[in-house]
């Protein structure tokens, strides 16, 4: 087996950084993994664990035959992905999606990284762009990159920082949900990994209830931003009230679509809209509101969301929120092997490259780790074919 004493520095122990570290270490390289948490946290994180999932617990579809994300899952498993191994070990029922118990998942990733003999964790913030004497570097700090490092990246790239706004969905205590109104069912009764076909809690709305709910969303007080900031939201995590502003029917054709669901309490009555909740922890005591990211102010959230039938007495373990994210203009700044053109000893991986979603972020970390490992072996990097999910993701990220 290949082994080297040469060390790769990876900044950020999120999904991408943890995956990159694992790929390099498993391939025989030495890694120093820099993580600022728990010494310094962010607006979205709540623990010091690696690969903490801050928005949803879902890795989305696990169907490799009919879904692009499911295909990425399959390719990552074939490549020995740590993130997929830990996700599979901590899955919770979610229909055809792969959802995980968030805390247990992060703990499993953290344990694997901290006990690997070729990975050394260095806690503390990296507050400026790494210099050439660091050797090979992967920056995987995600969209919540610290201000000092972000300024250093902007200085080296010569580009203005890009940003979008990402929102977080509320989480509800299961025992506060009225199950005489709500019911368990996956859409079209589809059975997914670890599921039964009845993995989501469904809360029905008739048309007057839906219309009143939309009015409340549109009129509710929200977190606002200065005009110069703009609000280029992350399309995959759009606040519900912003979706509503695009049209009153948007939600019932999006996260609140009633298709494939039959009310167990009133099977002859078709719901006008349905709010779904997905299990958030292994014990099943917490459920998150699927697609219900929001920038509503805290005081308004509980009042408005309790308008949803079945949630009239809901107790919230966490309310929704909004945070500002930064990312690179990757097609301009990065090479086909994720190297920064202005400083080729540095690679970028994960959401800071502009890719969307947990799965894509981890996949970019895997690719960056494999490319870096090829450098250590003095081998030409093996680019994935464009006909693969990896190849498609890399192509769209770097415009190669």
Give the strand line-up of the largest sheet. Answer: 6-2-1-7-17-16
Number of strands: 17
CATH class of the largest domain: Alpha Beta
Order of helices and strands: EHEEHHEEHEEHEEEEHHEEHEEHEEHH
Fourth-level CATH superfamily of the largest domain: FAD/NAD(P)-binding domain
Query: Largest sheet at a glance?
Result: 6 strands, mixed
Which overall shape is indicated by the principal axes computed on the Cα atoms?
globular
End-to-end Cα distance, whole Å, is 32 Å
What integer is the average pLDDT? 90
Structural class: alpha+beta
Describe this structure as you would to a colleague.
This protein is of the alpha+beta class. The protein folds into two domains: 224 residues, FAD/NAD(P)-binding domain; 158 residues, Beta Barrel (Elongation Factor Tu (Ef-tu), domain 3), CATH 2.40.30.260. It contains eleven helices and 17 strands. The strands form four sheets. Strands 6-2-1-7-17-16 form a six-stranded mixed β-sheet, covered by helices on one side. The longest helix is centred in the C-terminal third of the chain and has 19 residues. The two termini are 32 Å apart.
Which features would summarize this protein structure in a list?
six-stranded antiparallel sheet, 11 helices, globular, 400 residues, FAD/NAD(P)-binding domain, 19% strand, 2 domains, alpha+beta, 29% helix, Elongation Factor Tu (Ef-tu), domain 3
